[in-house]
Amino acid sequence: MTQQPFSRPGAFDLSSLRRPTPSANDAGGPGSGGADGSVGSAYSIEVTEQNFQGVLEASMTAPVVLVFHSPTRSPESTTYAAHVTSVVDQFDGRFLTGVIDVDAVPQIAQAMQIPQVPLLLILLDGRPASQPIPGLLSGEELDTLFQTIGQQLTAQGVTGRHQPRTAPPAEGAESGVDPRYAPAQDALEAGDINRAVEEYQKLVDGNPADVEAAAGLAMAKVLQRTQDADLNAARVAAAEAPDDVDAQTMVADLDMLGGHVEDAFNRLIALVARTAGDDRARAREHLIGLFAAVGNDDPRVLRGRQNLASALF
């Protein structure tokens, strides 16, 4: 198998594809299950018109592997799609599989100019990041492909992971405070923010799929960044420098602490919309961290993700 170069931006423009607004029962983003298209895997989603925008947005955190298949025209392609999903699951969130039945959603395949099934297409930052990969690859070829992409991403400084679509409770966990989080919670109660960050970081390093630890770490970092901040001075600085990423993210953090969650999101979404390059990337990354602190199932986060996608595309 010839390795495809992995690049950031993509090879094709998806701007012509209609992006429907997710319905109340179809959030479309990673981290939810069942109604949003879960196909029985921690890191896969059945792609529909309704959740396609969420799949695009998910690729801004880590790559999404789209696998196109047709159960009527090519039954082996459907078997292959399940095989790709199984291989991707072994990478613990480094990738998310988006399974696309071209018979059920032909408009997506047409918009993306998919010539045949089976076919793989890898998205990053909402765009294809490699040439399409047609045909049936063996398990060994798939493993090599995803390992190579993972190494290239790491070399580029891209280390994000998808949250699992289903998070089973920890073995032996009971109602009340999970003992895994006790050291971090104790540090927060003692006012030792730096130690709380360290404790949450240990949990995330040990299990990147731990959604609660990731959320705790994100919020602890907000507390850490704002320990010595002066709200009035921060607002003055942000007003005087509307495109200064540091000034704007500081006010967004302070808004979060004050309970003005949507204000924080909207400030950074507007910053993403009017900046470019490294500044845009920093603003987007900071916003995604705030999303994690609030929780992916929160309706304010779902709206924020939609608005972020609109700002980017």
UniProtKB/TrEMBL annotation:
<dbReference type="InterPro" id="IPR036249">
    <property type="entry name" value="Thioredoxin-like_sf"/>
</dbReference>
<feature type="compositionally biased region" description="Gly residues">
    <location>
        <begin position="28"/>
        <end position="37"/>
    </location>
</feature>
<dbReference type="Pfam" id="PF14561">
    <property type="entry name" value="TPR_20"/>
</dbReference>
<dbReference type="InterPro" id="IPR011990">
    <property type="entry name" value="TPR-like_helical_dom_sf"/>
</dbReference>
<feature type="region of interest" description="Disordered">
    <location>
        <begin position="155"/>
        <end position="179"/>
    </location>
</feature>
<protein>
    <submittedName>
        <fullName>Co-chaperone YbbN</fullName>
    </submittedName>
</protein>
<feature type="region of interest" description="Disordered">
    <location>
        <begin position="1"/>
        <end position="40"/>
    </location>
</feature>
